[in-house]
Specification:
The complex is a heterodimer of chains A (258) and B (397). In chain A, 35% of the residues lie in helices and 30% in strands. Chain A has 258 residues and is α/β, with parallel strands linked by helices. In chain A, the strands form three sheets. A six-stranded mixed beta sheet of chain A has the order 6-9-10-3-11-12, with helices on both faces. A four-stranded antiparallel beta sheet of chain A has the order 2-1-4-5, covered by helices on one side. In chain A, helix 4 crosses helix 5. Chain B has a ten-stranded mixed beta sheet, with helices on one face. Chain B has a nine-stranded mixed beta sheet with strand order 3-4-6-8-10-12-14-16-18, with helices on one face. Helix content of chain B is 13%, strand content 41%. Chain B has one domain. Chain B has 397 residues and is mainly beta. The chains are: A alpha/beta (258), B mainly beta (397). The interface between A and B is medium-sized, with 30 and 27 residues. Chain B: This is SufD family Fe-S cluster assembly protein.
């Protein structure tokens, strides 16, 4: 049973005009077996939350803490966080020319599992995971994300999720830029990951449509760098109908991060 | 992630129309077979401004005495079916079909050579290896090599530069109609060597060249490939990989001259640099000139130079330049980026649990792999990969 605890998390980014605070005291606890959706308007800081937890060097943590099963995540390097069981499916996965997907996946699995997977079972495992996400086998020999379409990149993020089996997965706008079929395939991949283990999911999204495929236990509204309201799945329906206007009002007086 | 090695890369990228006026027009470039037709360059000229003239051993100003010989050896395998090797005089009518010298050193080599090696490839011969031997330490030589195909030939040629001394040469690749020539040129010179090379690539109708240029060795290596299209349908894929150590000067000057319709060019050159305190900077220079003349409608071209600076005391110059005289093109673009490790790539790999040192190795190997993986000859590819590993071992990158 894993728990991700975020307590009063504050983070800023350095701009030409000096440090700019984007996260303004985020409190959130995700327990194993739970799926939390974080919804918010563009620029509310929800992607920053994802990157700050993963340890992107662009963001400076100015206060608060992040604990995974009581361990201080903020003191860990980026790779230590991943090995501790955190995973971030990125909105814009990075291209790494010259590094094959196969080499990358094996290097990642070796690191996360603490030993190199046995070649025979590994090949089978990867093939099965690719088939499940309707990814052509030829992608294994292509450079990481290079020349992939938006949908192909997202499928590969979920492929990594299914192979690395983290304790807590943060999905940052995994639904954006996907057509209906790709959304279904990707959502099914996430649901299989949820079903296979006692894991926590933090689903960051701008739209409600992915929530029709992946059912959240809790919905949070994110505005002005913090959570301004939490509720059940019905909160998403309300957002669908009324939009974010009410909540950006709740964050009034707080400058909206870009 | 905050170590000095990961400082943000300075990058620039542009497309035609955003880059402003090119610094120097390549449209009206002067060419001649006669060395005396060129003024002696002083080093400030556009096409010499990056080159350390003092290290040219007098190849540029007439003071070099050609007291050595550069043997051109064609591998035994090259004597097989479909390969003809000839030694010919200056008066052979085929000499010069590839192109005309465009700088004084190339013209010097042209004016001074007495015999040329002509390798003719016909049909689908086995891969041929041609070794270009330096004249030996302290000696200076010129050489002339022409590799040509008959129509509809498909062949692979490796040209390996080895040894010591100073060498100025011209290498012609004359690719006949419907032929595909895969060329790998390696500069594997000893530390003292100076190699100034004019490469002249002439593509016939629907002809293709896939040329990969590998520069590892030598004190000063300056290679100037020029691609011309003698008929429509030609395709040039030009790849390059350089690795400059402390004190090394590696210069690549490309000109792709689109003068006929429906031709394409794709250029990808990558350099890595690692210098050392107290030694002259490791230096790479990449010039990528692409001309699309008025007649060259439906041209498709892209060129990209990427430089990976592994240490301090290293300098990479990169000048992409696209000149277009017709609006009727299929596509044209260029980009150049120079920097240290890509922070975003490292973050991505590390976010999957891969430790930083392993992630760095992956990124650096990937940087070279993008070029080396295209080399179709396994033995050569493995040798070059091993050479990269040996270079990287110097700084532990």
């Amino acid at each position: 049973m894993s728990t991700l605890e975020i307590k009063d998390l504050r983070a800023s980014v350095t701009t030409d005009a000096g440090a700019k605070e984007i996260l303004r005291g985020v409190d959130l606890t995700v327990r194993a077996g739970e799926t939390h959706a974080i919804m918010g308007p563009n620029g509310s800081g929800k992607s920053t939350l994802a990157y700050a937890i993963a340890g992107h060097p662009k963001y400076e943590i100015t206060g608060g803490e992040v604990l995974l099963d009581g361990e201080n995540v903020l003191e860990m390097s980026v790779d230590e966080r991943a090995r501790a069981g955190l995973f971030l499916a990125m909105q814009y996965p990075v291209e790494v020319p010259g590094v094959s997907m196969a080499n990358f996946l094996r290097s990642a699995a070796t690191a996360v599992r603490g030993e190199a997977p046995k070649l025979r079972t590994w090949v089978k495992e990867v093939k099965g995971a690719m088939d499940a996400l309707e990814i052509d086998q030829t992608f294994a020999e292509r450079s990481v994300n290079e020349g992939f379409s938006g949908g192909e990149k997202k499928r590969h993020e979920v492929l990594q999720l299914s192979l690395l089996k983290p304790k807590v997965a943060i999905l940052d706008e995994t639904d954006s830029g996907l057509d209906v079929d790709a959304l279904r395939v990707v959502s099914e991949g996430v649901n299989r990951y949820k079903a296979a283990g006692d894991v926590g999911v933090l689903l960051i999204t701008h739209y409600t449509r992915i929530l029709k495929h992946i059912t959240p236990d809790v919905v949070h509204v994110f505005a002005g760098g913090r959570i301004v309201e939490s509720g059940g799945a019905e909160l998403a329906d309300e957002l669908e109908t009324n939009g974010y206007v009410k909540f950006t009002g709740a964050a009034a007086g707080v400058e909206v991060a870009s | 992630m905050s170590s000095p090695d990961t400082v943000a890369a300075a990058a620039e990228a542009g497309r035609y129309g955003q880059g402003g006026v090119p610094p120097a027009g390549a449209m009206e470039r002067f060419t001649s077979y006669d060395v005396e037709a060129f003024e002696v360059p002083g080093g400030r000229e556009e096409n010499w401004r990056f080159t350390p003239m003092k290290r040219l051993r007098g190849l540029h100003d007439g003071t070099a005495t050609f007291d050595g010989t550069a043997a051109v050896d064609v591998s035994a395998g090259g004597a097989g079916t479909g390969v003809t090797v000839e030694t010919v005089g200056r008066d052979d009518a085929r000499i010069g079909e590839g192109g005309v010298p465009a700088d004084r050193v190339a013209a010097q080599a042209w004016s001074a050579f007495r015999e040329a090696t002509v390798v003719t490839l016909d049909g689908t011969p086995e891969p041929v290896t041609i070794t270009l031997n330096g004249p030996g330490a302290g000696a200076t030589a010129v050489a002339h090599l022409q590799v040509r195909t008959t129509p509809h030939t498909e062949a692979t040629v490796v040209v390996e530069g080895r040894g010591s001394g100073a060498l100025a040469d011209n290498i012609e690749f004359v690719v006949a109609d419907g032929s595909k020539l895969v060329v790998i040129v390696t500069e594997e010179w000893a530390d003292d060597a100076v190699h100034v090379s004019g490469q002249h690539i002439a593509l016939g109708r629907d002809a293709t060249i896939v040329a990969t240029s590998i520069a590892f060795g030598g004190d000063l290596v300056r290679v100037s490939p020029t691609v011309t299209y003698t008929a429509p349908g030609g395709s040039a894929e030009l790849f390059g990989l350089g690795f400059a150590d402390a004190g090394q000067h590696l210069e690549q000057r490309l000109l792709v001259d689109h003068s006929t319709p429906h031709c394409s060019s794709n250029v990808l050159y990558k350099n890595a640099l690692q210098g050392k305190e107290g030694v002259t900077d490791a230096h790479t220079v990449w010039i990528g000139d692409v001309l699309i003349r008025a007649a060259a409608e439906q041209t498709e071209t892209f060129e990209f130079n990427r430089n990976l600076v592994l240490t301090a005391h290293a300098r990479a110059d990169s000048v992409p330049n696209l000149e277009i005289e017709t609006g009727e093109i299929a596509g044209a673009g260029h980009a150049s980026a120079t920097g240290r490790f890509d922070d975003e790539q490292l973050f991505y790999l590390q976010s999957r649990g891969i430790p930083e040192d392993v992630a760095r190795r992956l990124v650096v190997r990937g940087f070279f792999g993008e070029i080396l993986s295209r080399i179709p000859l396994a033995e050569l590819r493995e040798r070059l990969e091993a050479a990269v590993e040996a270079e990287l071992a110097v700084t532990g990158a």
